[in-house]
């Protein structure tokens, strides 16, 4: 492998890996608080892409209840992405209110909550298909303004072209990760969130409103999922209502690789899987998902606690 291809794959891997990381952090935040996996997170990913597409004033296709419909506004991509993320955050709050809170207050088995979130995911996907059909939607060519199609990281004699969208995705993802790390480690909200994750009962006795921080965690999780969906869709398009399902499964691989409930482990896991996928030879690109889940299988066999999570010790 030449140095040019090596560097190109490295930059592409970091780009997609950073998106995997911010998407999988949505899983991690909810798991760290409630100890359960929110399987509706993949549907949130899909919604974020559709929301941003609509807020940019783009028309839908010829199928579905909203055939050929378009909003009377045309927001810039960045503003549309942020508002789309906020909308998915509110959808995530609705999911918490409908599918999680009633079962949590009844002390139901966590497995029932997992099944409930799966049901919500199926409903969201089917509602999307009913409204806008199963067509593929691509973002407009001017999404990123006047940026060139690619940036050359090499020389004229040995070019190393990287798509501008990949660079933007990496920059946005890195900024979001930095803000999230600061929020969790350096603010009262983050410290209270970690206290609730450690022991919700003790946190309540110390005056922390656990329900309020659970709600905040779900909103943040939904926001991250929506942003991740938009970033991926701006690069490859929206491949129908089931667009987020494969990413949802890959997000599970990321959090298992990094360690369930570990934020730093999730970031590391996302970057690693992105880099590994980038180095899969082109003729085997159809098997990239198999590579991710092979890693998941091996990790469960060799180190089930993940890369950066200590083995839990139960005291009796």
Automatic annotation (TrEMBL):
Keywords recorded for this protein, A-Z: Amino-acid transport, Cell inner membrane, Cell membrane, Membrane, Transmembrane, Transmembrane helix, Transport
Main subcellular location: membrane
InterPro entries with a match to the protein in the record: ABC_transp_permease (IPR001851), BCAA_transport_permease (IPR052157)
Keyword Acetylation tagged: no
Subcellular location: Cell membrane
Domain of life: Bacteria
GO function terms (MF aspect): L-isoleucine transmembrane transporter activity; L-leucine transmembrane transporter activity; L-phenylalanine transmembrane transporter activity; L-valine transmembrane transporter activity
Keyword Transferase (UniProt): no
Bilayer topology: Multi-pass membrane protein
GO cellular component: plasma membrane
Family: Belongs to the binding-protein-dependent transport system permease family. LivHM subfamily.
Protein name, as recorded: Branched-chain amino acid ABC transporter permease
Organism in which the protein naturally occurs: Leptolyngbya boryana CZ1
């Amino acid at each position: 492998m030449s140095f040019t291809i090596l560097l190109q794959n490295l930059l592409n891997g970091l780009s997609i890996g950073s998106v995997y990381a911010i998407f999988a952090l949505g899983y991690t935040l909810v798991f760290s608080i409630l100890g359960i996996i929110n399987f509706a997170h993949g549907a949130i990913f899909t919604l974020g892409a559709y929301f941003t597409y609509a807020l940019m004033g783009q028309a839908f296709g010829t199928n579905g209840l909203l055939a050929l419909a378009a909003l009377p506004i045309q927001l810039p991509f960045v503003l549309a992405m942020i508002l789309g993320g906020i909308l998915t955050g509110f959808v995530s709050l609705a999911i918490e209110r409908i599918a999680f809170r009633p079962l949590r207050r009844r002390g139901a088995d966590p497995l029932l909550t997992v099944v409930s979130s799966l049901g919500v995911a199926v409903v969201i996907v089917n509602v999307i298909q009913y409204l806008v059909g199963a067509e593929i939607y691509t973002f407009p060519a001017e999404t990123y303004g006047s940026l060139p199609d690619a940036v050359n990281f090499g020389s004229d004699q040995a070019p190393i072209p990287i798509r501008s969208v990949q660079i933007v995705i990496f920059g946005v993802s890195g900024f979001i990760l930095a803000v999230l790390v600061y929020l969790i480690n350096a603010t009262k909200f983050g410290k209270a969130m970690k206290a609730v994750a450690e022991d919700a009962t003790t946190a309540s006795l110390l005056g922390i409103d656990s329900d309020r921080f659970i709600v905040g965690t779900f909103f943040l999780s939904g926001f991250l999922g929506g942003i991740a969906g938009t970033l991926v869709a701006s690069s490859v398009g929206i491949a129908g209502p089931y667009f987020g399902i494969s990413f949802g499964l890959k997000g599970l691989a990321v959090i298992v690789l990094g360690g369930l409930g570990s934020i730093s482990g999730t970031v590391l896991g996302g970057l690693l899987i992105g880099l590994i996928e980038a180095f899969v030879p082109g003729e085997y690109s159809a098997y990239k998902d198999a590579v991710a889940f092979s890693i998941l299988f091996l990790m469960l066999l060799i180190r089930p606690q993940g890369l950066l999570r200590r083995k839990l010790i139960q005291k009796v």
